[in-house]
Amino acid sequence: MQPLVLLIPNLGLGGAQRVFHDHSVELAKHYAVTEAVFNLEGGDLYPSGNPVESLEVSGGGGVVAKLTNFRRRIGGLRQLRERLQPTACISHLEGADYVNLLSGGPGKTILCVHGSKLHDANIKGPVGWLRKKVLMPLLYNRADRIVTVSRDIMPELITGFGVKPEKLLTINNFFDVPQIEAKSQEPLSASEAAVYAAAPVLVTSGRLTIQKNQAPLLDIFAAVLRQQPAKLVFVGDGELREELTSHARGLGLRVYAAWENTAALTPDFDVYFLGLQQNPFKYLRPATAFVFPSAWEGFPMALGEAMVCGLPVVSTDCPTGPREMLAPATATPAAPLRRAEQGEFGILLPMLTSPATAAADQGIWASALTTLLSNASEREQLGKLARERMQDFTRERIFGQWLQLLKEVCRD
């Protein structure tokens, strides 16, 4: 089989790393795949079984250290490409993209862009300016092809960074539908089942980070609780865990946090932070609805997984992904959504990032959730439609597009 290199900064926790793993597993059926990473300091949380080559370059440090490490990564990848003679090198995440583009060497250069660049709040300060104004506009057109995981990332790259349209192609993330469905059937523990039986359960899944924007969801949930009984379950962990639990308690909500080990899991709480779970899907399937308050996305895995589990989903109309998944026949509105929009496969709601409209936007969310929780027939219908929609993103359907792309690019 022809050799192929897949490059990513690290193999730690994250949606891009999960997609990277899935690509590695599938591509290994057709190519001799080698995974390359800057370093293995965070471990390998999604092992694929394919060979892993670490460039052994750490991160961090001051400006001089960062520049030195950057050069070392470029040189390390160049040596790896010279040694393996890959037919292509496919990079995931922006830092890996720059190294891929500048390393040269054998093989075509393909980038996989996982999320919005214009709306990523982590791209800020002098380094953010450098990335947006210099590196992406100057370097991205060097790629042989750029794959975006959402259709709405393409116009950002064209208008925002001057990427040539002919370089771009959208291939959505794929979902292992049978595996997710099977794992979702795993039963809850007796204490977990008691929580789910006590009241309607709103569940959200994802890292506790600024991107996922979970703090306003707590304010919304407090408003919902004033109308009817309910539980809010968080599956995932992250750097904002203390901030979110403190905010919840500040709202008068009774909080269970798995990492605190100070209280037994009982139905006596309002909000449940369950932390990282090896099988998050078993917490999705028995829930009443899935809520997704992200500030920006790519093509969100957590939202798709909830849809596979047959949950009615409620999501911000954030850039990018949710509209494409829930209302694919519609275009991104010129102005931010300020109402509840019934999409073909789920409900789109205002983003929760504007201080000027925060109270009104949260009110729209609370009203939509209260209405949904009181309408079992609508929930059943939305859950059925969500599950049907995910048949468009099966492994077989999506990955054929990757194989076709590699065939075309490597033939040029």
From TrEMBL:
Q: Which InterPro entries match?
A: Glyco_trans_4-like_N (IPR028098)
| Name of a matching Pfam family | Glyco_trans_1_4
The positions making up the signal sequence are none
What residues does the Glycosyltransferase subfamily 4-like N-terminal domain cover? 14-177
The entry's protein name is Glycosyltransferase
